[in-house]
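User: Reviewer 2 asked us to show a designed sequence for the structure in our supplementary figure. I'm pasting the structure tokens here. Could you produce the per-position amino acids so we can include them in the response letter?
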């Protein structure tokens, strides 16, 4: 592939990633892992927060991507700030707090 074609492909990919037009993110190796978390033993509040997380995060990528991301609570805080700024994320401040609370709890429980 020549340099001009590579530059064009990179520009097209960047455009797709930045448009925020509600399309799903491109595939990622984490997408092939488990696509849910068994929260039966989690406190009731965290089970509720998991529902918000599961409903909102699938708008842009498979839930498996975040289920299989071994991020610490601090990593999730930074990542979530980026995700809620994406156009069409549909995540309000209250939901963001619930999602972060769940991800922080889960990360700590998993020892990340």
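Assistant: Here is a per-position design you can include in the supplement:
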């Amino acid at each position: 592939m020549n340099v001009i074609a590579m530059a064009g492909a990179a520009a097209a990919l960047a455009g797709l990633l930045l448009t925020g037009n509600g399309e799903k993110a491109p595939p990622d190796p984490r997408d092939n892992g488990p696509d849910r978390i068994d929260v039966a033993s989690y406190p009731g509040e965290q089970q509720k927060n998991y529902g918000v997380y599961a409903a909102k995060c699938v708008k842009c990528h498979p839930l498996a991507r975040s289920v299989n991301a071994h991020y610490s609570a601090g990593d999730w805080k930074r990542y979530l700030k980026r995700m809620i700024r994406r156009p069409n994320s549909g995540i309000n401040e209250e939901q963001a707090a619930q999602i972060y609370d769940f991800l922080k709890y889960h990360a700590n429980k998993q020892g990340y």
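For the response letter, you might also mention the following. Residues 1-21 have pLDDT under 50 and may be disordered. The two ends are 40 Å apart (CA to CA).
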